[in-house]
């Protein structure tokens, strides 16, 4: 449509791997609909991407990558422990560069029309604020599950009910009230792990204030985008719709996007494991282990995982990023692989995960329950074993084990006996496999042409087009 051709969306994800993945798939959908996209990285991440970003730009003349500084020194490791400092640096230092860039992009140039809409990562409220101050309509995109967004939104109610803060030394398996639609199965431990840091007041600066700011930003943005589908999270989406100006459930985005994983990967993928998988004779006999892009496990946790995996007797493919290992772990790993044989163990630093999960040899996915990994496992119908350790992963893990029943929740326990028993059950349970298969079939219907998510994405394109047309003409939109 003619109006869509003039729409130019600036997307600004948080500079973490899972967020980059979601935003790239989302951007691919915008490009296929005829929109222009400026993808805003940090300088640090754009340097890490190197030629992958350039190749993606060449693939579409309506896509470009720009960057702003994140404010941290070049040699800062930017690990999960440093995320609060990174996010604060973005808010206090990168926001000025972003404001200047967006102001210039409103004029157009470089073969691109003026920016007419911003899609901001929901955990960076300043992106929405700056855009609206400059007269550019802004939409919030949360890369977590709808149930996680609802849990964050419920913090004031949980405090009013006395559910937060948790009593010191209290039972984390105790049921919890206050998150709509989840009263029958949610436990304290299933709330995002930051909630365990709350002490005596909602004004706790590093937790509750951040939660409050991100939730408020999502509520005041023109709309909220969630990378999910109604068949997975109908109840949570229904409750969110009552709080937001509009909600678009447009996922799983990766299942609708042809974008290659390498285009947004901050690590160099090692696809040599695919040949190893091809050499496995039995179907659904391999355990695939990946704890995501941020986890750093201790030597004790590494040892428990390793012993538990070896004890299952199943071959395993383990993604271990270089920054997850120390010398003692590396030596222990080599010794274990030597003992079990290379035909039973393959270890790589990074892999194209979607290709692994859809391989005939993979029978189970041991995951940290990050939302991207969770929905990738769902789409491929692979039974999951969940070991959550951060942010929204706890609630995703609970849904896998208690709601969708396509896997098992290991809680945050890291014990070799638990690893062995849960992996065995996930590999051998026909009930779990049937649930995983049925869920996959439903989600595939959602992302097919005229499926629920595909129709939602079309509605979103119309929404952005109307916002963009109004912004270009300098007139209020009916969506404002």
TrEMBL record:
Q: Which GO terms describe its molecular function?
A: UDP-glycosyltransferase activity
The main enzyme category here is transferase
Residue ranges occupied by any Glycosyltransferase N-terminal domain in the UniProt entry: 9-145
Q: Which InterPro entries match?
A: Glyco_transf_N (IPR058980), UDP_glucos_trans (IPR002213), UDP_glycos_trans_CS (IPR035595)
Reading the lineage from the top rank, the first entry is Eukaryota
- PROSITE patterns tied to this protein: UDPGT
Presence of the UniProt keyword Nucleus in the record: no
Pfam families documented for this protein:
Glyco_transf_N, UDPGT
UniProt cross-references to CDD domains, sorted A to Z: GT1_Gtf-like
What are the record keywords, sorted?
Answer: Glycosyltransferase, Transferase
Q: What is its EC number?
A: 2.4.1.-
Write out the similarity annotation: Belongs to the UDP-glycosyltransferase family.
Protein name in UniProt:
Glycosyltransferase
Organism, per UniProt? Zea mays
